[in-house]
Recover the amino acids of this structure.
């Protein structure tokens, strides 16, 4: 059964995200922190398929970080009706290098467009894709700038949700799931 997220739940979820980020930043002064969440449009933020895609994101992200030689100092996860998040404190002082790695994952993995990987510098400032001259995130449906489509509401929530489900379905078939 689908469970809709109320505004108050979403606000508490965002407050929790900020609190955990601040705690990690304080504990690991000067080091890079990052957060993985999902780009899920609409009022339903959790489902077995969304969790499967999120779990693939954590596995892929952790492998990529490890393969790049960066250690993970600490991880913290949140799973509730408002969505899924995982936080990381990294053994790195180079947020641009980490953002480059995460942007590549978002762009190349079949589920990458559904992941929202934020990378923060020692002051807790989020690294933007523009700093790396990386392309802006593309719309799930038309491939244009996602922010422009979202601002102008070019596509309905229903269309976007169908596309998210299609992306996950295609990935599952390719994985033999």
């Amino acid at each position: 059964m689908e469970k809709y997220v109320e505004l108050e739940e979403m606000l508490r979820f965002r407050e929790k995200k900020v609190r955990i980020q601040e705690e990690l930043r304080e504990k690991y002064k000067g080091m890079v922190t990052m957060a993985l969440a999902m780009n899920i449009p609409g009022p339903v933020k959790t489902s077995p398929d969304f969790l499967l895609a999120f779990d693939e994101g954590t596995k892929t992200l952790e492998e990529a970080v490890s393969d790049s030689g960066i250690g993970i100092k600490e991880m913290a996860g949140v799973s509730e009706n408002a969505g899924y998040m995982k936080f990381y404190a990294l053994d790195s002082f180079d947020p641009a290098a980490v953002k480059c790695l995460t942007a590549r994952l978002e762009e190349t993995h079949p589920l990458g467009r559904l992941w929202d990987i934020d990378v923060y510098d020692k002051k807790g400032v989020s690294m933007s894709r523009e700093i790396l001259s990386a392309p802006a995130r593309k719309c799930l449906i038309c491939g244009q700038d996602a922010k422009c489509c979202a601002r102008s509401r070019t596509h309905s929530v229903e269309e976007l949700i169908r596309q998210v489900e299609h992306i996950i379905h295609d990935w599952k078939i390719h994985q033999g799931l």
User: Anything to note?
Assistant: The two ends are 21 Å apart (CA to CA). Residues 71 and 91 are 5 Å apart (CA to CA).
